[in-house]
Amino acid sequence: MAKTSRKVIVTCAITGGIHTPSMSPHLPVTPDQIAEQAIEAAEAGAAILHLHARDPENGRPTQAPDMFARFLPRLKQSTNAVLNLTTGGSPAMQVQERLQPALKFAPEVASLNMGSMNFGLFPMLDRFQKFEHDWEPAYLENSRDIVFRNTFKDIEYILEACSGNGTRFEFECYDTSHLYNLAHFRDRGLVKGPLFVQTVFGILGGIGTHPEDVAHMKRTADRLFGDDYVWSVLGAGRHQLPITTMAASMGGNVRVGLEDSLWNGPGQLAKSNASQVLRIRQVLEGLGLAIATPDEARAMLSLKGGDQVNF
Q1: Of 92, 123, 197, 264, which one has the greatest count of Cβ atoms within 10 A?
Q2: Cβ-contact 43, 274 below 8 angstroms
Q3: pLDDT digit string (tens) for 208-237?
Q4: pLDDT per position as a tens digit, 45-86
Q5: 204 near 120, Cβ under 8 Å?
């Protein structure tokens, strides 16, 4: 029997700060919903769980550490998956607020956006006409005039604040310049390999979703980082599966989840995060690729281990 060629890390981003609750009844909002869907995603094959929190009363994104504390211990007890805490939060938050969960809980991995950018969510106003909460349409409309701030000072602040706790980063790169920003911090010695580089396609304000865009980001990362990085890819919305399939065939790792897309096919809402994990797993295994376990992902990314966190 032929052996599979390599192991692919599947990350699942459970809820995020982009979509609003009225867009899908399946978007997890409460701590119990987030925990349940995250555990199911891990059981389906996700080695890494990328985590945001929401106010359970209205579904609004929150970086309050006590909200994360309502599901992190349960996830640690119920799964061996790597738990990755956002420092992105939402574009409307200040960096000090966004950093608090990673600072308090010292996770194995935290996300880190690598540059300031326009982050346009307002086109979704044309797709969703009814909203349950007053904050939702205002939140989307305000993205027309918000720059998602991630300055060099902001990035330095996060790197230095987390430097003593062993947390490594999922470097989220939404455009070519973000790769160069990451190279700048690597050259200054503020980050060390292996770099976990998450290239993001399809956010209005970032790079597009053409196959040439994917190839261009891969070529640039190869040139800048050589063999000292682990490449992962996510595609926003309906581009999720085509982009991740393309990346996997090019040697990449993949990210899925309801943060990035609410869909599981044309006109079909995904009923859970696990359903997206299972779908990309079918694709990967169809390509002759094997799914990395959490411990294999830890080895690939040189992580400190789940017993070294503060929760």
Answers
A1: 197
A2: yes
A3: 999 999 999 999 999 999 999 999 999 999
A4: 999 999 999 999 999 999 999 999 999 999 999 999 999 999
A5: yes
Length of the chain, in residues = 311
- Residue ranges of alpha helices (H) inside 63-175 are 65-68, 72-78, 95-105, 135-142, 152-161
Residues in a beta bridge with 13: 50
Q: How far is CA 186 from the centre of its chain?
A: 21
pTM above 0.85, yes or no: yes
Q: How far apart are CA 200 and CA 172, in angstroms?
A: 7
Written as one string, the DSSP assignment of 3-63 is: PP--EEPEEEE-S-SSS-GGG-TTS--SHHHHHHHHHHHHHHT-SEEEE-EE-TTT--EE-
- Quick: pLDDT tens for 242-287: 999 999 999 999 999 999 999 998 999 999 999 999 999 999 999 9
